[in-house]
């Protein structure tokens, strides 16, 4: 009788053990998921903080950072050369390849090399330097004016010269030719796009048309299906 009761108890004990093991497995998986969720939340928070930092940085921060890193490397290289008793400039020249040296030499020979856009002040200065180099002073006319006006040719804060100078016809012609050249050059870069009569009119003025083109360029792929549904009349 006792052996029969033990046989009946064993299946129940085995079932309870299996249930307990299953419960432990579920708890283990739940703890793993909980840890993964916390880790994902932490990483997501870190990414949000980093993105917020990036958005608050200046527009040219990456270029400045690269420049600072390069300057630090140069300083470290100079210290290493000084510790070894070597001349940094000589070591630097030995590390430069022939192709880089030729390219830098060609760039040096340029009077006004285009280093790329950094800001509007630098672009304006570059244009000013380019325009002033095109000016060819008339030394003969300058000598005549110097003889005619003497010290009055060099005005001071007390000089009253308003309305006394009349430009020559040649000077006016040069200025007009230069302005026409600048206008022609600008038109090459900002030419008006041809108007398409068959295109849909979805704007109220030219400014709104430009805005719609920009919006279509950035968001058109996301709104294509909505537009098609609106045209078919099947939009919900």
UniProtKB/TrEMBL annotation:
Pfam families in the cross-refs: SYF2
InterPro entries: mRNA_splic_SYF2
Tagged with keyword Metal-binding: no
Sequence segments annotated as region (Disordered): 1-23
Major location category of this protein: nucleus
GO term, biological process aspect, one: mRNA splicing, via spliceosome
Compartments where found: Nucleus
Keyword Nucleus part of the UniProt annotation: yes
GO CC annotations on file: catalytic step 2 spliceosome; post-mRNA release spliceosomal complex; Prp19 complex
Keywords: mRNA processing, mRNA splicing, Nucleus, Spliceosome
Known function: Involved in pre-mRNA splicing as component of the spliceosome.
Subunit structure: May be part of a spliceosome complex.
Similarity comment text for this entry: Belongs to the SYF2 family.
PANTHER family listed in its UniProt record: GCIP-INTERACTING PROTEIN P29, PRE-MRNA-SPLICING FACTOR SYF2
Protein name: Pre-mRNA-splicing factor SYF2
Organism, scientific name: Oceanodroma tethys
UniProt lineage: Eukaryota, Metazoa, Chordata, Craniata, Vertebrata
